[in-house]
User: What shape does this take?
Amino acid sequence: MVRLKSRYLLMEIRFEDGLVDQSLSSSTVYHDILRSVENTYGDYGFGCIKMSFKVKYVNPFTGVVFVKCSRDYYRMLWHAVTFLKEVNGRQCSMNTLHLAGTINSCQRFLVKHNKKQLRKMLAQCKTPAEKGKISKMLKQLPSAKSMEDEKKKRQGDLALKHLTG
Amino acid sequence: MASFGDISVPYQNDLRVLMKYISTLVNLGYETIAINRTVSPDVKGKGGQDKIPGPPNLTSLPGLEDLKKTCPKLKLLSRITVIIEDQQQVRFIPGETVQSYDIVSVQPTNEKLFQQISQAVECDVISFDMTSRMPFYIKHPQVNLAIERGVSFEILYAPAIRDESLRKHTITNALELIRVCKGRNVVMSSGAEQTIELRGPYDIINLGLLFGLKPDQSKATVSRNVRSIIYHAEARNKTVKGAVSLEKMPVPASSVKRGHENVEQSKESDLKSKKFKV
Assistant: This one.
């Protein structure tokens, strides 16, 4: 039996006025993207996407969105997202950060991306108070090595479970 | 891999607004950005040449220094698009003001002008108004001529995002253009009227597939082809017949004239200090 394969898109919503939208929820994003698919690809596209399309995670503060879609039709979804102009009734644009086969790989990318973003912010800081805040945040983040160690530990645990169980 | 570039950011009189465009593009991952000015020179009366504005000063934009800290490779260029509706307007293109821009692009409005431009006119990019029905068919011979000379064709993607009818026309015309030039020498750039119409490079690569490009060609439209345009423009601007360029280099301290005996020697080293590029 062949597994149903899917693609995960990691996207970032950027509103026109640069503000965040606290009322942003996965259902509003879901309906807006689906409407855009219908606009660009019509009924056929809607039918193709509808079953496999899911919004997995929305962070209204950073504007990060995780979207799942079937591997056969993800390009349709991607085109529709490129043409998307409005989410939650506000003008915005969506920028794709990463495309992956598993949600885990997307998450790993997001951690790296956020670190990079924090470093960029650090370079643009003007007051020492801001600088201290961000460098403190950077220190609190898990390092790449500790993440790798944790992953290995988890794999080891799984192997042990497999052997004993 | 060549860095990503967007060669059609419209010039804004308010420099702060222009800076907003540039910083958005940098955040999206672009490193080469060309600021575009569109003109349609007036043929009637004297001094049509003088009415074309010179290239904007891009070194003194507010906040550019901060942006260069986060993106040290950022490259800003000036670009002019000359809309040509009349045979007589062609004479403005070799003019000094137009050639002083980093990138020169031409937008023909009928078939005869397109033929003339693809044959002989010195430019780097040929763009078309893709937001309405094309007034003529783009044909193989002219396109091949232009490609042989290293001239590229441009597709603007922002109109496709802006409005539904514009999207239809853009897709039709882009498909037609890509069919004729077989995906060679095509660049995709924004031409955005608002900052939210800008999209990231990978979104554009995906959009290229919608316009009938192959994945590798599609990737080249925002990276390799943009770089080749810049090289083409440099060859046109800064070289003699595209073959030789002269560069002044600092004279090394040892060759400073010390006495009568050293005059000849210093002449020689002066010659050496001029670097020849072929």
